[in-house]
Write a structure and sequence with these properties.
The structure holds two protein chains of two kinds.
Chain A (H helix, E strand, L loop, with lengths): L3 E4 L2 E4 L5 E7 L5 E7 L5 E8 L2 E5 L6 E7 L2 E6 L8 E8 L7 E2 L3 E5 L1
Parallel strand pairs in A: 2-11
Antiparallel strand pairs in A: 1-3, 3-8, 4-5, 4-9, 5-6, 7-8, 9-10, 9-11
Chain B lengths: L3 E4 L2 E5 L4 E7 L6 E7 L6 E7 L4 E4 L2 E6 L4 E6 L8 E7 L9 E2 L3 E6 L1
Parallel strand pairs in B: 2-11
Antiparallel strand pairs in B: 1-3, 3-8, 4-5, 4-9, 6-7, 7-8, 9-10, 9-11
Classes of the chains: A mainly beta, B mainly beta.
Chain lengths: 112, 113
């Protein structure tokens, strides 16, 4: 069973397009996250949601908009994609009361 | 906010040797310190973690030590094997479920047969 899943695994698109990445967890966790991992492998937190409510929003361009329809899902929509958005995006989740995080398989986004 | 420094950025060892990766953190309120292993093209996976009420934790060939006074913690891998080759990340947080992990920049460990 895949505990934290993401779709798609690969995403190749043109500059200026709008795209979405979906994340689902079946662990019953309350908190979900989006991270960006650049070519230097640095893991940078973008957003955190707890029970569908935004609790952390780092300095991320407002072209990035997270949406949590329920506590098992956290999607990431990106408008007007730029070359610098190319990266691997990881979703993660953690149980109530702890920051122990479990990561999804990642989505490799390539903007041409 | 929290700042986590990790050293070295790359580490090459021979199979069977020990490997040590060190991290320092800045926020004295941090009390949770996990370590993640990321193989090429894969997700980061939690391998061990420690909370500030203990100074050392072991799991087979892996151990983590914590010095809260000095604000540093280390990962020790003994009897390294080629399958230990990966990028290792340390992280720190206040472990409330409402804060988040601050990651170090990673250490690429290469174990040569």
């Amino acid at each position: 069973d895949t505990a934290v899943s993401q779709t798609p695994k690969y995403l190749v698109t043109q500059m200026g397009n709008d795209k979405s990445i979906k994340c689902e967890q079946n662990l019953g966790h309350d908190t979900m996250y989006w991270y960006k991992q650049d070519s230097k492998k640095f893991l940078k937190i973008m957003f955190s949601y707890n029970n569908k409510e935004l609790i952390i929003n780092e300095t991320v361009p407002n072209r990035f908009s997270p949406k949590s329809p329920d506590k098992a899902h956290l999607n990431l929509h990106i408008n007007s994609l730029e070359l610098g958005d190319s990266a691997v995006y990881f979703c993660a989740s953690s149980p109530q009361g702890t920051d122990t995080q479990y990561f999804g398989p990642g989505t490799r986004l390539t903007v041409l | 906010g929290e700042n986590v420094e990790q050293h070295p950025s790359t580490l090459s060892v021979q199979e069977g040797d020990s490997a040590v990766i060190k991290c320092t953190y800045s926020d004295s309120a941090s009390n949770y310190f996990p370590w993640y292993k990321q193989e090429l093209g894969k997700r980061p996976q939690l391998i061990i973690d420690i909370r500030s009420n203990v100074g050392e934790k072991k799991d087979q060939r892996i151990a983590v030590t914590l010095n809260k006074t000095a604000k540093h913690f280390s990962l020790h891998i003994t009897e390294t094997q080629p399958e230990d080759s990966a990028v290792y990340f340390c992280a720190a947080s206040i472990d409330s479920g409402y804060s988040t992990l601050t990651f170090g920049k990673g250490t690429m460990l290469l174990v040569s047969p």
